[in-house]
């Protein structure tokens, strides 16, 4: 149904990738995504490589489908991270939050397929130059760590697609069949979902975080640290709202106790990274339902548009 370069390179039926997210992108969530025909990703940004090794082992018990690993370069604590990832026997890796020249050659020499996350055209051209197999083009409406000059997916995707030949996975605002079809129209061959996957039934985060996403309006995120890197987009809470116009405090110092928020449910204990698309999520649903509905609706919308607007009338 979706046969393209992304399905071929990733070995999946449905070109949807679950975003890497520290502590969240582990086997419970990632195996549900892979078992649904899309691609689960295991994070390394938590830095807990011993735990990650066990999580990758657990993936092999929980699914016989492909999955990948992410290296978020800014958060790498162990210099042997590349050898660690290569040693896990995975074939697909995404690299983010750093220069594509740092790890691409080593990963590709070991036979891995490498997609690099880019927030600008300049970064995209640099990644292609570095030899990546594909790009994850991440619009500034998405959750997580961001370029300090955020550019929305609607501008970024067609711009980059017009200047590179490698396959593109769109991230930032991707949530359903409508956004997936739009991303394809703009030049992508796959989508990556972060916030939607945080809200999924199999996501390991506390129900308070999922409910906060369900309750959020599209205006309920804040863009922090635009003046003191790394910039990030997060859910608006008392803590993050106070930081929004405080250009003196680096928001990273306010991350405080992430696990109390992630798994204890205290939404003021830390910062809940979150995309604007929270405003389009209105229930907690199983991963398989999200992926199935997204894929079917995407194809139906593309077919309906083709029928509604034929190239030659009649
Ligand atoms: C809670 C959270 C944690 C994230 N952590 C990472 C990470 O460790 N590495 C990374 O490359 N991206 C990370 N991101 C960004 C996602 O990979 C993804 O590109 C982004 O969420 C897409 O936008 P969306 O939230 O609109 O789906 C994170 C996003 C969220 C919401």
In short:
By secondary structure, this protein is α/β, with parallel strands linked by helices.
* Basic shape: globular
β-sheet strand percentage:
15-25%
Say which molecules are bound, naming each kind only once.
flavin mononucleotide
Please count the beta strands (DSSP E, at least 2 residues each): 11
Unreliable stretches (pLDDT < 50, length at least 5) are: none
- SSE string: HEHEHEHEHEHEEHEHEHHEEHHH
Sheet with most strands: 8 strands, parallel
Amount of helix: 25-40%
What is the CA-atom radius of gyration, in angstroms? 18 Å
End-to-end separation: 26 Å
User: How would you write the strand order of the largest sheet?
Assistant: 1-9-8-6-5-4-3-2
Write structural notes for this entry.
With 314 residues, the protein is an alpha/beta fold. It is 37% helix and 15% strand. The protein is built from 13 helices and 11 strands. Helix 4 (81-87) links the parallel strand 3 (67-72) and strand 4 (92-96). The longest helix has 22 residues, at 287-308. It starts with a helix and ends in a 6-residue tail after the last helix. The structure holds flavin mononucleotide (FMN). Flavin mononucleotide binds at residues 19-22, 24, 43, 45, 70, 72, 96, 117, 138, 142-144, 171-174, 192-196, 198, 273-275, 277.
List keywords for this structure.
11 strands; three-stranded antiparallel sheet; alpha/beta; binds flavin mononucleotide; eight-stranded parallel sheet
Secondary structure layout plus pairing:
Layout: H1 5-10, E1 16-18, H2 27-35, E2 40-42, H3 49-62, E3 67-72, H4 81-87, E4 92-96, H5 104-109, E5 113-118, H6 121-130, E6 134-138, E7 144-146, H7 153-161, E8 168-171, H8 177-185, E9 190-193, H9 195-198, H10 207-215, E10 221-224, E11 231-235, H11 238-243, H12 258-262, H13 287-308
Parallel strand pairs: 1-9, 2-3, 3-4, 4-5, 5-6, 6-8, 8-9
Antiparallel strand pairs: 7-11, 10-11
Helix pairs in contact: 2-3, 8-13
Bound molecules: flavin mononucleotide.
Flavin mononucleotide (FMN) is lined by residues 19-22, 24, 43, 45, 70, 72, 96, 117, 138, 142-144, 171-174, 192-196, 198, 273-275, 277.
